[in-house]
TrEMBL record:
Pfam annotation, one family: MlaD
Primary gene name: mlaD
GO BP, sorted A to Z: phospholipid transport
Domain Mce/MlaD intervals: 39-114
Protein name: Outer membrane lipid asymmetry maintenance protein MlaD
Length: 148
């Protein structure tokens, strides 16, 4: 009987520790965020490295996540939906750029704000987009310039 109490106590401690780690991971990565107050859409020539859950950043601060990503079979462009956090207004002439944190860093979508006083409405399309630039493409351009 004493062994059962010990096993139950140890099991409870392990479950509490697991719940604590889960809470920490969700709060650190933004996984506990809601769906967002504002949904925006964008079409990219290349969304390489972008997946559902990828950060949306404005001035380096995470303001939302990519909530959906699909291929448009008619235009052959990547269509993305963004869930932007409550209370964040995005000027309606802003751009969405697929960016990288560095040579080996992760990918995120940077919102480059425009100067308009009008804000995007829920469900609006960001027309000014710049897709991902692959490392191999950059290296090939550099090599081609050196040969010329």
């Amino acid at each position: 009987m004493r062994e059962n109490k010990t096993e139950v106590a140890v099991g409870a401690i392990v479950l509490a520790a697991a719940a604590g780690f889960l809470w920490f991971i969700l709060s650190a990565t933004g996984g506990s965020r809601g769906t967002g107050d504002l949904t925006l859409h964008a079409n990219f020539r290349s969304a390489e490295g972008v997946t559902v859950g990828t950060d949306i950043r404005l001035a380096g601060v995470s303001i939302g996540t990519v909530s959906a990503l699909s291929l448009n079979p008619e235009t052959y462009r990547a269509e993305a939906a963004f869930a932007i956090d409550d209370g964040i207004g995005i000027p309606d002439d802003s751009a969405a750029v697929v960016a990288s944190e560095g040579l080996l860093g992760g990918t995120y979508v940077e919102i480059v704000p425009g100067g308009s006083f009008e804000m995007f409405a829920d469900g609006a399309l960001i027309e000014d987009t710049q897709g991902a630039v692959g490392l191999i493409q950059l290296l090939m351009k550099f090599v081609d310039r050196e040969d010329s």
